[in-house]
Amino acid sequence: MTGASPSDGRHDDGEPVPRLPRGRGLRLSVPELLRIAVLAILLVFLIVTQKPCASAVSRFVTSFGGQGSAAKAMPRPDNVDVPGSGAGSGSGLEGYERLRPGMTDDELKAAIERARARAAGSAAH
Fold first, then answer.
1. Residue 18 resides in a domain
2. What pTM value is reported for the model?
3. 84 lies in a domain?
4. Has residue 42 been placed in a domain?
5. Whose CA, among 37, 45, 50, 88, lies 20 to 30 Å from 116?
6. What is the pLDDT of residues 47-99, one digit of tens each?
7. What are the phi and psi torsion angles at 54 (to 5°)?
8. What are the residues whose beta carbons fall under 8 Å from the beta carbon of 2, sequence distance 6 or more?
9. pLDDT by residue (tens digit) across 22-31?
10. Average pLDDT across the chain, whole number
């Protein structure tokens, strides 16, 4: 034990110290490098074109609402007729017959007849 004291933790017993195996590094073939480069270019392309493409699709989809025969048929907040929304009509539920759970068959038939009579009376006016 020359030059090493027992207190510093180094002991020389004469055996060779095994060395850790070293890897060969990161060696990639040309096709693998080409695949990595193509994938990187594709990812950059997707990131760059995402917003313009989304804006174009949005303009295309929203362009269908304002002209043609569908403009009046499509329900929009400005062209929907809500029952009872006219002036002086109260809550708008006067023209409806109230049905509740547990009604007997006779009560249901009577409510239907009242609704038919009310509809026939309003159609005659």
1. no
2. 0.32
3. no
4. yes
5. 88
6. 999 998 888 888 888 887 666 555 556 666 666 666 655 544 555 667 788 88
7. -65, -40
8. 12
9. 777 788 899 9
10. 78
Could you tell me if residue 102 is left (phi over 0), alpha (psi between -120 and 50 degrees) or otherwise beta? left
Give per-residue burial for 71-95: e unless 16+ CB within 10 Å, then b. eeeeeeeeeeeeeeeeeeeeeeeee
What pLDDT score does 113 carry? 93
51 located within any domain: yes
pLDDT (tens digit per residue) in 86-102:
544 555 667 788 888 99
User: Range of 35's domain?
Assistant: 29-63
Based on the structure, what is the number of domains in the chain?
1
